[in-house]
Each structure stands twice: as structure tokens, then as C-alpha cells.
Amino acid sequence: MLRLIQLELQKLWLNKASKVLIIISFILPFTVLILSSIKINFFGFFTLELGELGIFNFPVIWHITTFFASQFKFFFAIVVVSMIGNEYSNKTLKQNLIDGLSKKEFILSKFYTIVFFSLCATILIGLATFFIGLYYSSYTEASIIFREVEFLLAYFVKLVGFFSLCLFLGMLVKRSAFALGFLFILYILEWIIFGLLSWQTNSMDLAFNIKRFFPLESMYKLIDEPFRRIVMTKFPDKADIAYDYAVHWYEIAIVLGWSAIFIFLSYQLLKKRDL
């Protein structure tokens, strides 16, 4: 496994564009550090500091930072599809197979790299969240600090699932730009199917329950938006905005299932394709 990861890292680091995108994909999520220190002066009447609003208190901070950081996954998605596009355009895929790398090892090298970068991103976001929370949070009890640390697991699974989808799309179309375009098409397609389901079943709730099994929707639902939760903490009497924001095991299982399917389909494409 380490040999395959080292092989991919060497390829990525020798590519200037990939190197820049990797650095950006790791730096941008840390803009949450900037958010925590933002102070907004309202014409000299008063100063609003986000860190003092309680949104960086434990345990809600795990929810906020992982949701915010996951919005920047698109940058590494470009790296993932480029990994495949460059293999075809530079003829390195065929050369690797000639040099003794099996097709299974080729796909595994990509998947191991995806897991490696997802794990690194999760660890970095986890450390950043922990230290921001220690600085701003009013709660310092260990039971509260680590109460919702499962959002880190959801963040990790979300990255692995999304990048596995990008890997499959890259294998499918062989071109980075087209693969990223297919992501947008898939997003539109999921909403079209949702609309048809709600029309045919005459039930929005049933359509939403089915939609949560779709690839992109299932990944999004791993970490629900935290904004209503923040409002709930400030206005606990507003029961009409209450919602289930917790991380559920079945949501993780759905995304892991899709990840396995995408990796398997990528391998099947490579096996049947004439190189």
C-alpha cells in the first residue's frame, strides 16, 4: 500500500498544477481560523466578533468547521480527475502496466491516495477545530469537548465518497474538464429524478427519503447545514426550525457503499478498456 501511495505522490508532486491545487485544497479550509477572529465594526456603535457569539463553543464547533471545510473539496476533486486525465494524455498508464503494475494495483493506488489525502485533511481540520474551540468555548469538560467528534468521521467519509465518484468519472470520460462537467450533470439529474418522484408519488417526504440514497445527496446529508442549529441555540423556543442534524450510521453506510461501487466500476472500466 505504501509503495502505491508513494508512486502516486511522486507523480502529483512533479506536476506543478497538481502541486498548487493540493496546497490550495489544504489551506482554504483553514479560512475558518480567519472567520473565528473576524470583528465587524458597525459605524462605531458596537463591534461584532464572531468568536464571541458562541458559534465556536463545544460541541457545535465540530459541526460548523466540518461543514465549512467540506465546501472546499472541489479543489482536490480537480486533482483526482487530473490524476486520471494525465495518465491517459501522458501515456503513463500504459507505461505503468508495461512496467509490471497490475490494473488492480493501478486503481488501488488512486484509491489509497484518496484515502491518504482525506485522512490528512480530517486530521488537520480536527486539530484546528480543537484549538479554536479551546480558545473560544465556554465549556472545557472533556465529555462536552468530544461529544460530537463523529462529525470528523462524517467529514472523512464524505471526502472519500466524493473523490471516489470523481475517480470513476475520470475513468469514464478520460478528460478532467468533462469529468467535472459530469458532476454538474449528475447534480441536475438527481433533482430531475426527485421532481419526477414527488410528482408520481404525490409525496415530497417520500421523494426526499428516496433522494437521500442518491450519490451526491447522500454525501451532502452526512453533514447537514448548521445554520438553523445556531439559531436554535439562540432561540430555543422556536420549535418550528428544529431538525435532525446528527450523524447517523446508516448515512455513513450509504456513502461507503457508493464509494465501494465507484471504485469497483472504475476497476471494471479499466479491465475492459483497450489501452
Using brief descriptors, characterize the structure shown:
single chain, 275 residues, mainly alpha, two-stranded antiparallel ribbon, 2 strands, 73% helix, 3% strand, globular
Low-confidence stretches: none
SSE pattern: HHHEEHHHHHHHHHHH
Can you tell me the overall shape? Answer: globular
Structural class: mainly alpha
C-alpha end-to-end distance? 24 Å
Question: Taking strands numbered 1, 2, ... along the chain, how are they ordered across the largest sheet?
Answer: 1-2
Query: Helical stretch count?
Result: 14
Total E-strand runs: 2
Total individual domains: 1
**Helicity level, as a percent range?**
over 70%
**Biggest sheet, in brief?**
2 strands, antiparallel
> What percentage of the residues does DSSP assign to strands (E)?
under 5%
Average of the residue pLDDT scores: 82
GO cellular component, one term: plasma membrane
Keywords: Membrane, Transmembrane, Transmembrane helix
GO molecular function, one term: ABC-type transporter activity
Transmembrane segments: 20-40, 60-84, 111-132, 152-173, 180-199, 249-270
Reconstruct the topology from this structure:
Layout: H1 2-14, H2 16-27, H3 31-37, E1 39-42, E2 46-49, H4 60-70, H5 73-89, H6 92-98, H7 103-136, H8 142-145, H9 150-173, H10 176-201, H11 204-211, H12 215-220, H13 227-234, H14 249-272
Antiparallel strand pairs: 1-2
Helix pairs in contact: 1-7, 2-5, 4-7, 4-9, 5-9, 5-10, 7-9, 7-14, 9-10, 9-14, 10-11
Outline the structure in words.
It contains 14 helices and 2 strands; from the N terminus they run αααββααααααααααα. By secondary structure, it is mostly helical. The chain has a two-stranded antiparallel sheet. It comes from Winogradskyella eximia. This is ABC-2 family transporter.
